[in-house]
Amino acid sequence: MEDGSATARRVMVVADGSRESAGALQYALSHAVMDNDTLILLHVAPPKNAFGGFFKNPKSPAARFDGSPTSSGEGSVGRARSRGGGSGGEVDFLDGMRRECAAAKPALKVAVEKAEVAEGKDKAAVIVAHSAASNVELLIIGRKRNVLSKSILGARRGLSFKGLVETTEYAIENSKCTCVSVQRKANGGYLLNSKRYKNFWLLA
């Protein structure tokens, strides 16, 4: 139950326009945030290429969000429709996510923050550092399927652990705040992982 007198928190969702990111936002809106919280959408841009430009531009008008639901029920943040096709740029998913927040929780404060992966750094480290700098209490990241099984398989084969650690795994283990990875299931529920809970099923 939501309590308007509860202490306001800062909650961060990693936003990258993917199906996993859409699931993470839906979990945040339905189970993690209250109206008096602040929800931060963090977009981590890829490093600049050798020609000085970004590989993808999240503000490109080449694509737009379609507000109709997808077959998996992910709503307006779950699907993008390209106008021109090809590599005309990345959909402006951040606006789509903000609209999703406004529709679900009109009173919720929503902020957008952006960070760039510097050369020699990885996305996971940038997310952890940015969440610490933003003083968030809860970090939510969408998790891809089969990450755990791949990590277990690699460990059994004696491969380098660093090369196998997914962004979600690194964030869970290294974040100063509580970090939860979210995998939305076909039945509408969620599979959650954190430092404290492993493979926790949450029904929608």
UniProtKB/TrEMBL annotation:
List the Pfam families. Answer: Usp
In this chain the UspA domain maps to 9-180
Region Disordered, annotated ranges = 62-91
Question: Which PANTHER family does its entry note?
Answer: ADENINE NUCLEOTIDE ALPHA HYDROLASES-LIKE SUPERFAMILY PROTEIN
Quote the protein name from its UniProt record. UspA domain-containing protein
